[in-house]
Design a protein that fits this description.
Blueprint (H helix, E strand, L loop, with lengths): L5 E5 L4 E6 L5 E6 L5 E6 L5 E6 L3 E6 L5 E6 L9 H6 L5
Antiparallel strand pairs: 1-2, 2-3, 4-5, 5-6, 6-7
């Protein structure tokens, strides 16, 4: 995470997991893809998570609640946030 307090993992079991970096406690599970995850990244603020999978989708999540905010179809298999574009987008709110 941007603060170093959390670790985010992407897995072949179609989930991403948010961990407490100090204790190893699972804080949130992100489920909803239908194939192996290929990447998972934090937004620049750490409030959101973006995951991609072999199913051809990317999902934007609320990092705290685990709610899917948006599903992007027909995308590549790597996730990246561009801080300047993210700050200017309506999704960053």
């Amino acid at each position: 995470s941007p603060t170093g307090d959390h670790v985010l993992t992407a897995s072949a079991d179609e989930t991403a997991i948010l961990w407490n970096a100090s204790t190893g406690e699972v804080l949130q599970r992100f489920t909803g893809h239908s194939d192996t995850l290929t990447s998972a990244v934090f937004s620049p603020t750490g409030d959101h998570v973006l995951t991609t999978a072999w199913d051809g989708t990317a999902k934007l999540w609320n990092a705290s609640s685990g709610e899917v905010l948006h599903t992007f179809e027909g995308i590549g298999r790597a996730a990246v946030f561009l801080p300047k574009l993210w700050a200017a987008s309506s999704l960053a709110v």
